Amino acid sequence: MTLNDVSVAMAALHQGDLVIYPTDTLYALGADVFNEHAVQNVFTLKHRPFSLPLPVAVASHQDIETVAILNPAAEKISKALLPGPLTLLLHKKPSIPPLVTSGQDTIAVRIPNHPVALQLLSDYGPLTVTSANLHSEKTPALISDILIQLHAPHLVSLNAGRLAGAPSTLVDLTTPTPRIIREGPITEHQLLEVLSHE
Known about the structure:
- The protein is of the alpha/beta class.
- It has one domain: DHBP synthase (Alpha-Beta Complex).
- It has seven helices and eleven strands.
- The protein has helices at about 5-15, 35-45, 60-65, 70-80, 115-125, 145-150, 190-195; strands at about 20, 25-30, 55, 70, 85-90, 105-110, 125-130, 130, 155, 170, 180.
- Helix 1 crosses helix 5 (about 115-125).
- The termini are far apart.
- The model has no long low-confidence stretch (mean pLDDT about 95).
C-alpha cells in the first residue's frame, strides 16, 4: 500500500466512482455520501434493496458531527471506543441525502480502526462503509474474490491483504436507553461500563 494508491482512490471518488477499502473488520465499498449517483451505484452493484440504509464511515470523533447529531451518550461512547469495530445509530444531519438513509432520520456511523481507511476518510471525507459483497452473500476476505463476486474488475481497490473480521457492533443511541441491534466485537458490558462513568 502506497500513498499513491490512496491518491488514486481519492481521484476515483472525486469522479463519482466507487472504491473498495479496508476497515478493521472487513473490506468496505466506498462512495461519496454526498454524491447521490455514486450512492445509487452502491445499491445497484451490491443488489441491495433501497429500503436498507447504508452505514457511513468518518475519520474522527469531530467528523461524526458532519453527518450526525451527537447526544451525550454518543459523545461518551465515541470518545471511549472509537476508532474501533463499533457503529453508532444516531439522528442524521439534514445535509445527508435521504437515499443514504433510505428516507429515515437516523444514520449509522463508524470510525474504522485501520490506517488506510483513516487516511482515506481524513483526506476525502465521509464514505459509505457497507461491506464489499453482494447483498446477503458472505464478504470475501480477499480483494480478488470481491471483484469476482461483484462482477466489477474495474473498481479501484486498496489492498490490505486478507480481512475476515466479524461485522462491527451496532448500537442504537437515538433513544434514552441504548440498545444493541447487532452484536459484534464490542460487548454490551463494555458499552454499559463506558456509560456508567461520570
